Amino acid sequence: MDSVIIVVSDTCASDPSKDATGPALQNVLQTNNNIVYVADDKKAIQSAVRHNAAKYALVVTAGGTGFSPRDTTPEAVYELIDRPAPGIVTAMLVESLKITPLAALARPVAGTIGHSLVITVPGSPKGAVENIQAVLPVLTHAIKLVSGESSRDLHSSAKSSADPATAQQTVVAAISTPTKLCPHHGHGKGLKFYGSAQRPRESPFPMISFEDAYKIVMDAAAEPTLRTDVALFNAVGRVIADDIHARVDVPQFRASIVDGYAVLHSDCPGILPLAEVVTASKDTIKLKPGTCVRITTGAPVPHGATAVIPVENTTVAEEKDGKEVAIKIHASGVGAGDNIREIGSDIAKGSCVLAKGTPISSLGGEVGLLASIGIPAVRVFEQPVVGVLSTGDELVSVDSQVCGSQVRDSNRPMLLAALNAAGIDPVDLGIAPDKEADLLRSLRYALSKVNVLITTGGVSMGELDLLKPAIEELGGQIHFGRVNMKPGKPITFATIGETLVFALPGNPASASVCYSLFVQPCIDKLRGHAYEHRHFSVAISRDVKLDTRPEFQRVHIKFSPDGPRTESTGFQRSSAISSMVGANALLCLPARTDDVQELKAGSHVPAILLNSL
Ligand SMILES: Nc1nc2c(c(=O)[nH]1)N[C@H]1C(S)=C(S)[C@@H](COP(=O)(O)OP(=O)(O)OC[C@H]3O[C@@H](n4cnc5c(N)ncnc54)[C@H](O)[C@@H]3O)O[C@H]1N2
Ligand code: MOO
Ligand SMILES: [Mg+2]
């Protein structure tokens, strides 16, 4: 997951089986990491590079570096680079020139984008491999420097890896070794990794209300500042970064709203000779007063015509050889402008069509509107890079056989899928064991990759619940570690450096509910959308027993002609993920009091609408 090869080629983008360069580069880099295919299109290349640079320590693009008109990789990458690396370029050119004078025609660029090193190499397998081999001896060193390690610590190791064979080994190590972003150390609650006898027997974290916890999360989420252009078909879920004004009128010409006859409205009713025929895509003609022009929906209304009469309000007055010669217009009271879409009447040139902060929905309205005014790529706010890490010795991946007390890691696929559906391309950080050193290594690695880290498990009172002390060990600040809610009581929210950390409870229904209530709104704010939970009130369809904690019960809301009705999704224990199946809302039940132990069927309770399919 630490390096990525982006193959830039129209051919390979439409048929990756034709690619030999990606596998050749995988071989020399000794990784089986992702190969991404992208067409020779500057915007598409930039989008792929930008996105992958946020996730990978090393991005190698192959192809599009020559002189043909569609070769735009160097220009695309150059515009994104924060700091150029001309030395890497020189090293590649010097070595390539020893092999062929044609290397003088290559136009490589290299440099850093954030914490990622980006290198462009030619598209041929041979050229690509030769170029990467030329820089292998310095690649490890470069990757570590770019990801934030001190150059002094690295100096000696760079010397020792000067031959390509050793270099190949060390590159592999560098792109898979966690790097440390956050050097500060424990100044929080003084949590430590305790032995079982010394661990606190009471949580040191105050139990705060859901409302207070929500406010803390949303206050910690900064408004976005970075902007990027995305193609319309990739824009769903993104948020408009700047007001968009129409640069054209829609329609750009006076267009007919119906299939019928263009006329001068004062000529109606009456019999009018048919002068011409216009269909959509024809040029605008001129109407001679006292005649009519047959016209189709959307076609340009002739100059001088003031109305279009639907075909249903006409008959043929005269025909010749099966063709219309004169038309009888029956319609009376025809007004100027009837059935004509005037220029700019749908969208006026200069008007603000989408305001900053508007989310682009999957319903098609925003995308369709932008397409209609000739905007193929839209400026949106950058999204945070979000990663998901499961923790627990007992966990095995979903495709494993389970034995004994092993448990399938269902939280990670669940959260990765939810993020995907929300338009985020998440980083899968795998499973970390409940061992201090391993957990710290996984967290450090995660911190080097993401802006928002979601972990599940290990936040409660067990001897292997190590997340809270680990966060403090890494210098993080825990903003809350217990919330008075069911499910989700031990949810923990922290910041480590700039990274927001949601340490969600391991119980699957708790993890899912906490994701919807806290993580999703936070991510939406980070990408520019002023998200608000959608509250409504609903009558419960059966008696509900109240818990000692305020409870978010998973329900399915059915919208019937008599209004919304609730149906429980079944057994509500927080280990039972089945309680989320079919859920489209959470009932917000109050905590039980001495006076009120249950709510009767028919009582109205507040609810929160979840994102549903
Ligand atoms: N003495 C106390 N015990 C517990 C308390 C408490 O206040 N005092 N809180 C309970 C509550 S409430 C919850 S919720 C859980 C939270 O547990 P943890 O976050 O510490 O999670 P684990 O102990 O690691 O695991 C709990 C449970 O969840 C399963 N799990 C974990 N990760 C996954 C995953 N990725 N996929 C599927 N299932 C997962 C794990 O196997 C356990 O069964 O603590 C209570 N205890
Ligand atoms: O708070 Mo826990 O999620 O109820 O089991
Ligand atoms: Mg636990």
From TrEMBL:
Cofactor(s) recorded in Swiss-Prot or TrEMBL: Mg(2+)
Annotated GO MF terms: ATP binding; metal ion binding; molybdopterin adenylyltransferase activity; molybdopterin molybdotransferase activity
Short name of one Pfam family: MoeA_C
Domain MoaB/Mog: 4-142, 387-525
Catalytic activity: adenylyl-molybdopterin + molybdate = Mo-molybdopterin + AMP + H(+); molybdopterin + ATP + H(+) = adenylyl-molybdopterin + diphosphate
GO BP field: Mo-molybdopterin cofactor biosynthetic process
Cellular component GO terms, alphabetical: cytosol
SUPFAM superfamilies from the UniProt entry: MoeA C-terminal domain-like, MoeA N-terminal region -like, Molybdenum cofactor biosynthesis proteins
This protein's UniProt keywords: Magnesium, Metal-binding, Molybdenum, Molybdenum cofactor biosynthesis, Transferase
UniProt cross-references to CDD domains, sorted A to Z: MoeA, MogA_MoaB
Pathway this chain belongs to: Cofactor biosynthesis; molybdopterin biosynthesis
Family: In the N-terminal section; belongs to the MoaB/Mog family. Belongs to the MoeA family.
Function: Catalyzes two steps in the biosynthesis of the molybdenum cofactor. In the first step, molybdopterin is adenylated. Subsequently, molybdate is inserted into adenylated molybdopterin and AMP is released.
PANTHER family tied to this protein: GEPHYRIN, MOLYBDOPTERIN BIOSYNTHESIS PROTEIN
Matching NCBIfam families: Glp_gephyrin, molyb_syn
Protein name: Molybdenum cofactor synthesis protein cinnamon
Organism from which the protein derives: Wickerhamiella sorbophila
